[in-house]
Fold:
Amino acid sequence: MPEPRILKHSFATRDGVRLHYTDEGRGVTPLVFIHGWCSNLRDWEPQAQYFATDHRVIRYDRRGHGDSDAPAAGYDPAGHARDLGELFAHLRIKDAVLVAHAGGGPTALAFAAMRPDAVRALVLIEANLYTAQDQFERTQPLMKALHESSSTEIFKQAYRRFLHPECDPALAARVVEDAALTPPQVILAELEGLVVDTASMARAIAQPVLWISAVPRPGRTDGAGVGQVFGNVRYGQVVGAAHFPQLEVPAQVNAMLAEFLKSIPPAA
Structure:
């Protein structure tokens, strides 16, 4: 079955970076989807199709990803949060539910801290809660390998491990090939930008949070772990997926998200 055609729009940020986005559906509180490291807005297609029937659904390619421009700087969570703030202003969004995957999590946390009035709730899928030192130690082996070799095959092999071994081969190939189109300097800059203290960032969040994991990490991202960090959090775990549950088991993710949306208090 051919993939649906995605109609993108674009706008320029104050520093001249053109970001591409989609704006579909209609609803009171928009859902804004934030993709992860070396991903793009296509990775939210199952959610867009499901929720655009009764919600306004916005997806965008973060700078350096997808069809958006790839400038030399701005790849830390603060930079991405500023871009997101400009997207909100461009689309005249007053508040929204942020749905972030993996490396997009720090962007969502940074934006929620920068603009708490604009974030009704957060959904974090396969995200991490680590200190900056923990994150540095986790990313160093991959950073070293990517620095030492310009071969895209090393990157593709590493990225393929994010998907479940039994993932649909066509889907896995599409995700990996899309990721490999990310400019090499962005791949490294994004990894460096992810070396932040997400655990401390998360403790400042007062809004309701839905945390969805595929593989719990004891003491970090299992139900007990996130409950010790966020003040108001629900935890869900999918089965049959690895690091991309929104693509691998979309029905499970959509059901959890739909139920969570019902629990969010209306705007005052």
Observations:
- The two ends are 44 Å apart (CA to CA).
- The first helix runs from residue 45 to 51.
- The longest strand covers residues 18-25.
